[in-house]
Amino acid sequence: MSTQDFYQNINNIYSPLQSFALGLTKNMDDARDLFQETVFKALKNKDKFNLGTNFKAWIMTLMRNTFINEYRRKKRHNVTSAPSDSFYFEASKDNTSIRNLGTSNLEMEELNKMMNTIDIKLSTPFKMYFAGLSYQEISDQLEVPLGTIKSRIFFARKELKKLALIAGLR
Questions:
Q1: Are 37 and 66 in contact (CB under 8 A)?
Q2: N or C: which end of the chain has fewer CB within 10 A?
Q3: Of 49, 62, 51, whose CA–CA distance to 20 is shortest?
Q4: Domain 3-89 is of which CATH architecture?
């Protein structure tokens, strides 16, 4: 297929291709970028297009794969979207700032006191969950069914929220 025919095929499916790009990105600027990137890749790889196959399906597959690859790349590099829709790399956590832990330590101390006031059947799984164990690990260690563990943690949270409101914590 000549380059002229290739451009003609792209022009014939311009509107559906733009709509597909907008459907994937949900943003007009990103849709335009995706469209341009797809057309660039299509031109770059036009020798890989087999004559007699569906051109529209080929280029839409190329667009979808480009979108997915870009999404994965952004996710892998921790790119976040700012309100202005421009992208910034998330700063790595450095230890240059010092955080005052006094207030959070007091809140944690108060939370521990509240945990000691609720039923031990509720507080034990909650403390284990809070320490980072999964529901399944807690269930295995306490030899209690998984559903029971989930409900006990739920009721512990509910009870702690009620006590926190009474105590004036968040």
A1: yes
A2: C
A3: 62
A4: Orthogonal Bundle (1.10)
Domain residues of the chain, as ranges? 3-89, 102-165
Give per-residue pLDDT as tens, 115-145.
Answer: 788 888 888 888 888 788 888 999 999 999 9
Domain spanning 102-165, CATH class: mainly alpha
- Give the residue ranges of DSSP H helices in the chain: 3-12, 14-25, 28-44, 55-76, 102-117, 120-130, 135-142, 146-167
- Mean pLDDT, the chain, whole residue set: 79
What gap in Å lies between CA 136 and CA 144, rounded to an integer?
Answer: 10
- Are 1 and 46 in contact by the 8 Å Cβ rule? The answer is yes
Give the pLDDT confidence of 14-45 residue by residue, as tens digits. 888 888 888 888 888 888 998 999 888 888 88
What secondary structure does DSSP assign to 5-51, as a single string?
Answer: HHHHHHHHTHHHHHHHHHHHHSSHHHHHHHHHHHHHHHHHTGGGSPT
The token pair that represents 103 in the structure block: 């207030």
